Structures are given as C-alpha cells and as structure tokens.
Amino acid sequence: MVVSSRTDTIRKRPVPEVKPRVIETEKITINLGLIDLGQVDLLVQEGFYSNRTDLIRTAIRNQLAAHAEVLRQTVARRTLVLGLQEFSKHDLEALRKSGTKLRVQVLGLVRIADDVSPALARDTIQSISVLGAFHASAAVKAALAGRIN
Q: What are the φ/ψ torsions at residue 137 (nearest 5 degrees)?
C-alpha cells in the first residue's frame, strides 16, 4: 500500500454575499376522505404521478388554469399586486417622512424586513390584505394585528 501526503496552500478568497432565500412554496395541510386518498395512492402506484404532492399540485394548477380568466379579472378589479411585495426599513421610513400610509393588497407574498420596528410598521401601514403568505417579525405582526385582513 502506498500512502502519499499532500499539503494544499490555503488561498484567501472573497466570501460571496449570502442572499436570503426566496420562498417559492408554502406548506398547506389538507384533509381527504379515505376513498379519495386511496385513489390518489393508486394513481401514484400506477405511475401517473411521482407522489401524492405531484398529483395534488397538478390538480390545483389545472383548477387555476380552468378559472384563469376569473382570476385575472378579479386581480384587476381589486387592484392586487401579483407576486412578491417587499417592504424595507428604508421604504417605510420614506413613507413616514412623506406622511403616506399604505393599503397593501397582494396575491402572493408580503414580506416586511426584519429590521422594521413595530412602531414604523404601525405608522406607515393602514391595512394589509394578503391572499397567500405574510412574512414579518412576530412583533410587527402583533403591531398590525387589527389591520390584517
């Protein structure tokens, strides 16, 4: 047996900036009847879908596609922001300075930065209506509790 040793030179490299992960999915829980669940499992076993999640996700997408026009009209009528709406401390401080209050209406994800204080959020956000997910610190959520629909 031959044993060799090697010494590597450690090079200093700039550390890449770590960017926060954008959450692309949200976990939900559903209740199915036993017969429905059995049929789902049968389709998975027969190879129509790779797993339960694949079937459920496909079924949801098919329903959304079937109702696409109604969804489009409703988003336009309600003037909803579609997708991700983020608010930084800088954004909200500028709003406070201008005396403007937000009425946030989003279909997707609303994210308020972790460095936003409860007082700043309370001073600048009049109401929040989210069809999807709302990510903010527990303190900010508590400060806005009466304004979240």
A: -65, 155
Encoded tokens for 103: 């009425």
Residue appearing with tokens 């031959």: 2
What is the edge-to-edge ordering of all strands in the sheet holding 81-87?
Answer: 81-87, 102-112, 125-135
Please tell me the distance from the alpha carbon of residue 120 to that of residue 139, in angstroms, as a whole number. 11
Domain ranges across the chain:
29-66, 75-149
Given a contact cutoff of 8 angstroms between Cβ atoms, the answer to whether 144 and 130 are in contact is no
For residue 147, count CB atoms less than 10 angstroms from its CB and return exposed for 0-12, middle for 13-18, buried for 19 or more.
middle
Q: How confident is the model at residue 23 (pLDDT cuts 50, 70, 90)?
A: low
Q: Tell me: the pLDDT tens digits for 30-41? A: 999 999 999 999
Structure tokens at 67: 């109702």
- Interior angle at CA 98, CA 95 and CA 102, nearest 5: 40
